[in-house]
Every structure is written in structure tokens, then in C-alpha cells.
Input
Amino acid sequence: MVVSSHVATKDKKKTPAAQLKRQVTVSPSHKSIEDEVIYLRSQNKLLNNALNAVKNTATDKLRKSYELVWYARNRTRYPSHQVSKWLDNSKEHSRDIDNLHSTDGDFHHGFNSGVLAASRMFKDHAEVSHVDSDSEDVFDSAHQAVVKHQEKIEESREAFPNASADTFPVLRADSN
Output
């Protein structure tokens, strides 16, 4: 699909949905509209799968890095808290906890803080707003989703680097 970046002056008075409709044209590389639809559906599926993979990876890295950053900041403040004990005995975290106790502990804490901040940002970017398919004006709904997602990305960029770990991590039974 080719989307023009130039909108005629007379189109500026039209609604965003009307502008979007006028900007979408069939790509000359495909022979028919049916071929274009098949191509766009397969491309959409590929992009959705890629976004889901980014979101899932960011979620996993966010969870683990949050736990490690919290531990590094709070292990001396809450040495007998159940979360501290859980992380001290976690098989999943054992190597990382040993690294935090090593002479290079500051480096590892900084690395984990960077992973935490980056994971938060990429998770926010990968969470896309879905178009309301029940809407009477699908183009208007799509336009609103695009605008909302762009705002979300800007907020996420402005919040970066967010490496806060202020609340206790959630205990997970699958870590030991």
C-alpha cells in the first residue's frame, strides 16, 4: 500500500477519515485489488506476530529486570522480607544475584536498570491500539487509533529512562 505524504490544500477541510481514504492507493506492483488484499493481510499477520514477539520479550525482560533492580536497591532495607528471601533463593535469579553481590555489582545493577528502562519503553511501543471493527466509520476509527498510539509513543519516549522500582515485586511460584 502506498500512502501519499502530500495532501492537497482543499483536503485539509475534510475529516481525518476522508483524508486517510484519499491517501490510500493500490500499489502498482500488484495486478489486482484482490492480490493487494491478500498481500496486505499476510503483511498484517507478519507485523502482528512481530509486535507480539517484541511485546512478550519486553514483558519477560521487564519482569526479571524489575525484580533485580528492586533487589539491588532494597536488599539491605528489607533483608527479612519475603520478596528478598524469595529472590535470594530463586534458581532463575541465582547467577544475577551473585553478580549483584560481586565486586562488579554496580555494573550489573546499572545494566539491569538499563534493561528495565528499555523494556518498559519497548513494551509501551509494542502495545498497539486496535481499531474498533464495529465502528460505522472504520477509517475514522483507524485514524483515532494511529493518533492515540503516536501519543503513547511520545509519552513513553519522554518518560525514558524510567528505571523506577518502588513497589515490591510479585512473588511467583515458578521461580524456584
User: Anything to note?
Assistant: The longest strand covers residues 2-3. The two ends are 49 Å apart (CA to CA). DSSP finds six helices and two strands in the chain.
